[in-house]
């Protein structure tokens, strides 16, 4: 995924620096490749251990292999909760947001570790578009020799598709969500993360709600907003730190 993205770091002078990840200069073939990467990742995750359902969907998409009646019902059951609007005339508002979450997830998954920080765990996006709770959780192991060894960052994802409200309002809403309901959002991730980690990372997961509630230096937060290229701002997140009074500078990301 990262091969298709242009990444520009911004706001280095701000308490909350941010990055603009853009797909706007891609050819039609490259956009199709990105769409396939996202769709395949979503369906692989949704089908989970039901490998026959994923294989049937993939074969149908790549080679046009006809699905049996049972196979069609199978694939539809996995795909509809994410990709189908609730009414035939309704725009599938959940799809842009869910795709945005997966774009963030895949890019974060491919991001290289740095000498002072190694990624230990990254939560996959939620199974359903309207699921409550946090949209992302990443746990790192710090190797800089100072501060806590394990760190976590809770992420809130939003989409901005235009309209009367500016993108600034969308960003602000995300930070307000983390500020008001951050501990609840952490709790929503704990049970899931606990199934995938062990050892000291597993013990750390059990401490996340308390660490977030007390504003421990190991806790952090981040916001991601998916939008079209025409709405991408030149300046953003300059006041993000004012919504997270429970943390010290350096724990915010965008």
List the helices and strands and how they pair.
Elements: E1 6-10, E2 18-22, H1 28-47, H2 51-63, H3 69-83, H4 94-110, E3 117-122, E4 136-142, E5 150-160, H5 167-194, H6 199-213, E6 219-227, E7 252-253
Parallel strand pairs: 5-6, 6-7
Antiparallel strand pairs: 1-2, 3-4, 4-5
Helix pairs in contact: 1-2, 2-3, 5-6
User: What is the global morphology?
Assistant: globular
* Biggest sheet features: 5 strands, mixed
Strand-residue fraction? Answer: 15-25%
Q: pLDDT below 50 for ≥5 consecutive residues: which ranges?
A: none
The whole-angstrom Rg is 19 Å
How many domain units?
1
Q: What is the count of helical runs?
A: 6
Structural class: alpha/beta
Overall strand count: 7
End-to-end distance: 19 Å
The SSE order reads: EEHHHHEEEHHEE
**Average predicted local confidence, pLDDT:** 86
Provide a descriptive summary of the structure in words.
The two termini are 19 Å apart. The chain has one domain (2-242). The chain is globular and about 55 Å long. The protein has helices at residues 28-47, 51-63, 69-83, 94-110, 167-194, 199-213; strands at residues 6-10, 18-22, 117-122, 136-142, 150-160, 219-227, 252-253. The longest helix has 28 residues, at 167-194. A five-stranded mixed β-sheet has the order 3-4-5-6-7. The protein is α/β, with parallel strands linked by helices.
Question: Can you give me a brief rundown of this structure?
Answer:
The protein has 254 residues and is α/β, with parallel strands linked by helices. The chain is built from six helices and seven strands, in the order ββααααβββααββ.
């Amino acid at each position: 995924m990262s091969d298709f993205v242009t990444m520009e770091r911004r706001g280095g002078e701000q308490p909350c620096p941010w990055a603009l990840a853009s797909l706007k200069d891609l050819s039609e073939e490259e956009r199709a490749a990105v769409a396939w990467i996202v769709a395949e990742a979503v369906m692989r995750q949704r089908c989970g251990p039901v490998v026959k359902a994923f294989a049937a969907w993939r074969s149908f998409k790549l080679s046009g292999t006809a699905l049996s009646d049972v196979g069609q019902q199978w694939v539809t059951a996995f795909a509809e909760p994410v990709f189908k609007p609730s009414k035939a005339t309704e725009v599938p508002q959940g799809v842009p947001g869910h795709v945005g979450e997966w774009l963030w997830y895949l890019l974060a998954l491919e991001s290289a570790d740095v000498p002072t920080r190694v990624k230990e765990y990254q939560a996959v996006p939620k199974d359903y578009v309207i699921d409550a709770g946090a949209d992302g959780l990443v746990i790192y192991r710090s190797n800089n020799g100072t501060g806590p060894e394990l760190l976590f960052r809770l992420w809130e994802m939003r989409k901005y598709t235009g309209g009367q409200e500016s993108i600034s309002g969308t960003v602000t809403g995300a930070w307000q969500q983390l500020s008001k309901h951050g501990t609840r959002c952490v709790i929503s991730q704990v049970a899931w993360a606990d199934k995938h980690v062990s050892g000291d990372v597993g013990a750390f997961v059990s401490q996340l709600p308390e660490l977030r509630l007390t504003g421990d230096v190991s806790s952090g937060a981040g916001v991601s907003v998916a939008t079209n290229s025409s709405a991408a701002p030149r300046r953003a997140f300059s006041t993000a730190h004012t919504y997270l009074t429970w943390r010290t500078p350096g724990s915010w990301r965008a």
